[in-house]
Amino acid sequence: MISRTTIPDRCAHSALIPLLAACVCFPMACGEGGAPPPSSGSESAAPAASTDPEGVVVDIDLDEYNILMNSVMPAGRVTLALANRGFEEHNLLFVVLESDSTVWETERRLSPGERRTVTLDLEAGKYRAVCDFSGHEGRGMLVEFSVEEKTPTGAGPDR
Ligand SMILES: [Cu+2]
Question: Partners of 7 in the beta sheet?
């Protein structure tokens, strides 16, 4: 008897499906360098429409449960562009780390989706930004940042 040599079936590779499903979508909108003038929206009294050439705009986003902001901001006059991107109300306090004293806080909570612009003066030092509404601080709405003196302008290589 002649035994037939059996040719094994071509082993089909089980489908190699690359996992392309991970669409990495960064929530940060890159490319928007300058903030649009916050003239629209429901603002309370904003009488500071005078000369403010050195106003630095600092974006601070609030959601559940994070405070998204730069870890360094310049000393002096800054304009905080607050935005509640969450679905709960949030507030914000700046606390000096060393003295544990609150130097600024929102006058009222921000509603979901609300934007608000606040101008204030900050001295150099270490601070903590906190949302202390409804236990949010314990859930993560707590971030430390530092305020640093601005380097003098005139970054040109030559005079
Ligand atoms: Cu909060």
Answer: none
| Homologous superfamily of the 56-148 domain (CATH) | Cupredoxins -  blue copper proteins (2.60.40.420)
Enumerate the domain spans of the chain. 56-148
Distance CA 3, CA 11 (A): 22
β-strands 56-63, 76-84 pairing? parallel
Greatest pairwise CA separation for the chain in angstroms: 105
Centroid of ligand 1 to alpha carbon of 20 (angstroms): 35
Between the CA of 23 and the centroid of ligand 1 the distance, in Å, is: 28
CA 155 from centre of chain: 27
Q: How many A from CA of 25 to the centre of ligand 1? A: 24
pLDDT digits (tens, 9 = 90+) for 41-64: 444 444 444 455 457 999 999 999
pLDDT digits (tens, 9 = 90+) for 17-47: 343 333 344 444 444 444 444 444 444 444 4
94-137 pLDDT, tens per residue? 999 999 999 999 999 999 999 999 999 999 999 999 999 999 99
Q: How far is the CA of 68 from the centre of ligand 1 (A)?
A: 12
